[in-house]
């Protein structure tokens, strides 16, 4: 069974690939499409979709994995908090193994720090309620999709008067880095596959700027191989016709307005902030910080010694996140850096481009660009 057969109807995927090839014949040059969703990155690699595209259509991964784009200084601060007496650090599992300047949260836990894996922010809140004499910090990393769940936990902490529940906000929002990538001459992206999960919250209108400011098409798509290939076909058709348009091909869950209630809950607790993205640097307004009235929930205000951040030697994860190289172009890929022993953040999460390529594409002929 082929990769496409394992992850979708092979006949439907092949039919889309044929239509993409026909549409690509009308392109004046080779074009670059970028997906900015880690789930898309994984789905594309698992189904082998890149290998089905014609030479004139190049599909690259962007900064769609929240764990991957989290800068090393955030992990360093999380480690410092974990070493602090009377503190419990709670986190989703992926972040546990992300390399820091001098180790990882996994190593700090092995050394005796109380670092616990949770499956939701509410689990962390319950740990705080059960350990009233200790400070409980939840490592809040994610895009617009997960931020409402953190805001809901904060609202519950306020309602239940759980004073020892705090978060270290690593939340980020997608439009600002997409603007940065669209302006970057090194990347030269022509169109975007928009993040499906994020779009559920933001609505498709949040990405109108792609067409209005940059005269580029973009498509909201689902996560089945046929969903992705349908999006690729739509983008190639729009590029061939020189039509900058935003299309929503995931209307069963994504609306133009998005989830207004979820966004209102987020706005109650968070405000826009200038933050650092791994590989992209500091981007104005691309993060979320707790509002001043909730400073007592902000673990970033706890005084701890944080070392000068050090990126792993030789790791090119930042360039992978920008889409300027494919994972196999990193000299560490598949050698000293593997999912079992990751050197860079892009090899940790299943949504990371390096991890997805290592699992599904490293042996494929023509896997790299």
- How many discrete structural domains? 3
Query: Proportion of β residues?
Result: 15-25%
Strand order across the biggest sheet? 2-1-7-8-9
Give the overall average pLDDT. 93
Return the CATH topology of the largest domain.
Rossmann fold
- By secondary-structure content and strand pairing, the structural class works out as alpha/beta
Helix content: 25-40%
Distance between the termini: 25 Å
| Strand runs, count | 11
Major sheet details: 5 strands, parallel
Oligomer: single chain
Quickly give the CATH architecture of the largest domain.
3-Layer(aba) Sandwich
Number of distinct helices: 16
CATH superfamily placement of the largest domain: HypD, alpha/beta domain 2
* Net shape: globular
Q: How many whole angstroms does the radius of gyration measure?
A: 21 Å
Low-confidence stretches: 1-7, 365-369
**SSE topology string:** HHEHEHHEHHEHEHEHEHHEHEHEEHH
Task: Give structural notes.
By secondary structure, the protein is α/β, with parallel strands linked by helices. The protein is 39% helix and 17% strand. Helix 2 runs parallel beside helix 13, helix 3 (38-47) packs parallel to helix 16 (353-360) and helix 9 packs across helix 14 (260-269). The two termini are 25 Å apart. It folds into three domains: 3-64 and 174-248, Rossmann fold; 68-173 and 259-301, Rossmann fold (3-Layer(aba) Sandwich), CATH 3.40.50.11740; 312-360, no CATH class.
Q: Which helices and strands appear, and what pairs or packs with what?
A:
Blueprint: H1 3-7, H2 10-24, E1 31-35, H3 38-47, E2 57-61, H4 66-69, H5 72-83, E3 87-91, H6 93-96, H7 105-110, E4 115-117, H8 121-130, E5 135-142, H9 147-160, E6 165-171, H10 175-183, E7 191-194, H11 196-202, H12 208-214, E8 218-220, H13 225-240, E9 246-248, H14 260-269, E10 270-277, E11 281-290, H15 317-322, H16 353-360
